[in-house]
UniProtKB/TrEMBL annotation:
EC annotation from Swiss-Prot or TrEMBL: 1.1.1.179
Domain Gfo/Idh/MocA-like oxidoreductase N-terminal residue range list: 11-137
Top-level taxon: Eukaryota
Transmembrane segments: none
Domain GFO/IDH/MocA-like oxidoreductase: 155-275
Entry keywords, A to Z: Oxidoreductase
SUPFAM superfamilies according to UniProt: Glyceraldehyde-3-phosphate dehydrogenase-like, C-terminal domain (SSF55347), NAD(P)-binding Rossmann-fold domains (SSF51735)
Protein name per its UniProtKB record: D-xylose 1-dehydrogenase (NADP(+), D-xylono-1,5-lactone-forming)
Recorded family membership: Belongs to the Gfo/Idh/MocA family.
Cited InterPro entries: Gfo/Idh/MocA-like_OxRdtase_N, Gfo/Idh/MocA_domain, GFO_IDH_MocA-like_dom, NAD(P)-bd_dom_sf
Taxon lineage: Eukaryota, Fungi, Dikarya, Ascomycota, Pezizomycotina
Catalytic activity: D-xylose + NADP(+) = D-xylono-1,5-lactone + NADPH + H(+)
Length: 363
């Protein structure tokens, strides 16, 4: 499974679901770019109907040659011997079953975030993957961005802002939920709807990435205080504080589907300065600016800006990493390891326990 073409590995993808994220992901990983680390082939598409699958290909992947095989069900993708890895782009509540089905067919998996509804489901999926000896990873693409690697180096190797003390991160999108049809996954608690699993998971990820030094992961377990605003059974806003007892660091992290966050969505404060991170949203950072310690007497403050323009959307960073893992016959990725996926879901579970959001599947 997976192969080497000249110097870079080739991976043949089977895509499950033809919604928004599947369109972004497939377009991005098949677009031409400079010095790709892997070759990605969209081998098959699984959709609830053939017409929807064909429309997806003609709308989003019209130039692929050969064109992907389109199936009117998901099982045919799992069964296709030409598919190396299954990309799961369905609503979170369906990830568990779709992962289990793909694993049963012996396929590797890249599964969108939130990986599952809760940590219990994730444990079941990860155990099944281990049993079948297949690769599996949560598609938390943010962690693979060069900006994140650079920022962590600035924080914990170069220590440009001294000792990190506090982090404020917000991911808000104005989703106008009430205008959506009842069938929308963003409205339906049975599909895992709510700001926390959809976008709060990014705010949490930023908190973990910026408050924890490379040595501390994953041994330091933060204490959590959380609150949620619930409307029609879904959390329209979640706010949570992570406190690390060993260092005393705090992260104030928020998500909402009611208003959009301004471009500067993240502030990291240290003893010797602070950093502002900018982007169209917390999932797509574009730059960060490092400022010295605030001098109340100074009239202007000069910051140093680090910009990270990416080709396309940047989904290929995670896809390339997965192709390399599979070419090396690895079952887990070091940037998004299984233990971290579980830890994230355990924290999300605790936020929901305190905030009150429950999914119908949880009783
Ligand atoms: N990484 C990112 O930046 C990012 C961005 C957006 C979303 N996501 C994640 O990707 C997943 C899908 O989100 P999306 O925005 O792409 O959703 P979406 O546009 O609603 O698409 C989901 C697709 O899943 C399939 N599906 C199967 N059963 C379904 C059901 N009962 N209800 C709705 N859809 C069903 C449908 O495809 P077929 O009819 O073709 O089978 C549908 O088009 C979520 O877990 C979300 O968190 C990630």
């Amino acid at each position: 499974m997976g192969s080497h073409n000249e110097s870079v590995p080739t991976l043949r993808w089977g895509v499950i679901g033809t919604g928004l994220i599947s369109s972004w992901f497939t377009k991005d990983i098949t677009a031409s770019r400079k010095n790709p680390r892997a070759t990605h082939i969209i081998q098959a598409i699984g959709s609830s109907s053939l017409s929807k699958g064909n429309a997806f290909v003609s709308q989003h992947l019209p130039t692929l040659d050969p064109a992907p095989t389109v199936y009117s069900d998901y099982q045919s993708v799992y069964n296709d011997p030409a598919v190396d890895i299954v990309y799961i782009g369905t609503p979170h509540a369906l990830h568990k079953q779709h992962c289990l089905d793909a694993i049963a067919a012996g396929k590797h998996i890249l599964c969108e975030k939130a990986f599952t509804l809760n940590a219990t489901e994730a444990r079941e999926v990860l155990a099944a993957a281990a049993e079948k000896n297949v690769f599996i990873m949560e598609a938390m693409w943010l962690r693979f961005r060069p900006l994140v690697t650079s920022l962590r180096k600035v924080l914990y190797e170069e220590k440009l802002i001294g000792d990190v003390r506090r982090v404020f991160c917000d991911f808000g999108l104005d989703m106008n939920i009430s205008s959506l049809p009842d069938s929308s996954r963003l409205k339906d608690p049975a599909m895992g709807a709510g700001s926390l699993l959809d976008i709060g998971v990014y705010a949490l990820t930023w908190g973990l990435l910026t408050l924890e030094s490379p040595e501390s992961i994953p041994s330091e377990k933060p204490r959590i205080i959380a609150t949620q605003t619930l409307r029609n059974g879904i959390d329209v806003a979640s706010s949570f504080i992570l406190t690390y007892s060993a260092t005393g660091r705090q992260g104030i992290l928020t998500s909402t589907v009611e208003v959009r966050t301004p471009v500067t969505f993240l502030r990291i404060e240290g003893t010797e300065g602070y950093i502002l991170v900018e982007g169209v949203g917390a999932s797509a950072p574009r730059s960060y600016t490092v400022y010295p310690k605030i001098n109340p007497a100074a009239e202007t403050v000069e910051g140093k800006k680090y910009e990270f323009e990416v080709e396309g959307s940047g989904f290929y960073f995670e896809a390339d990493a997965v192709a390399e893992n599979i070419a090396r016959d690895e079952k887990e990725n070091e940037v998004m390891p299984h233990g971290e996926t579980l830890r994230v879901l355990e924290i999300l579970d605790e936020i929901r326990r305190q905030g009150g959001a429950r999914f119908p599947q949880e009783g």
